[in-house]
Amino acid sequence: MLRTPTGGAGHGTAGPGDRLMSIGAVLARLRDEFPEVTISKIRFLEAEGLVEPRRSPSGYRKFSVQDVERLALVLRMQRDHYLPLKVIREQLDALERGEQIQLPVQGAQRELFEGGDGAESDRRTARRLGRAELLAAAEVGEEDLAEWESYGLLTADASGGYDAGSVTVARLVCELGRFGLEPRHLRAMKASADRDAGLVEQIVTPLRRHRNPQTRAHAEATTRELAALSVRLHAALVQSALGVRLH
Predict the structure, then answer these.
(1) Domain of residue 87, residue span
(2) Domain co-membership, 176 together with 129
(3) How many Cβ atoms from other residues are within 10 Å of residue 45's Cβ?
(4) pLDDT tens digits for 165-203?
(5) pTM of the predicted model, to two decimals?
(6) Considering 74, 96, 118, which residue would you say is the last residue of a domain?
(7) What phi and psi values does residue 164 have, to the nearest 5 degrees?
(8) Are 74 and 89 in contact (CB under 8 A)?
């Protein structure tokens, strides 16, 4: 069960003594838990009516602590429970009315993606999302998904399933599309990601083939760490090339 983290107060409200934050400060607060969140994502959630920050006399967004908590709750619902925005909005409305809500149990959600017999290989192997599940979670249509597949941005396996990361990819492609970036423009990003993945595989493959179970387990931790570092490096290089700072 969940209750609103601010005790039932509506979003967009702030007490007289509350310190209001810029969108950059909000991004910095959220980034620890949600590394992939961007200013564009926050603006998108605002446009969808999921958060309503105040505006300064000069028009700048000013977020309260309650706004940040609400954003974090929205992002958790997306990340942990794969809820579409329409359902999230309904859940938040219920919280504002002082009602309790029941979200899908995280353990049960994990069972959708993980093997159930406890073996290490099964834990590593994610169960697949069906096509309809991916469309619902990403809130996109069949035509969009077919176009993304034609450019290699998403790929189904032989049984027509998708891994859990496909939801994130689909949502990010949607967000980039709002700025006029079409799937054909994103092929270079996909090719770069494939090259990065190939480099990581060169490093961890010998570890995965090792006879020692601890070494094989270390391979998975190394894969995650290298993936995170690659993402951070890519972000830093893009920001450096553009001469911008996010916060």
Answers:
(1) 23-96
(2) yes
(3) 19
(4) 888 899 889 888 888 899 999 999 999 999 999 998 998
(5) 0.51
(6) 96
(7) -60, -30
(8) no
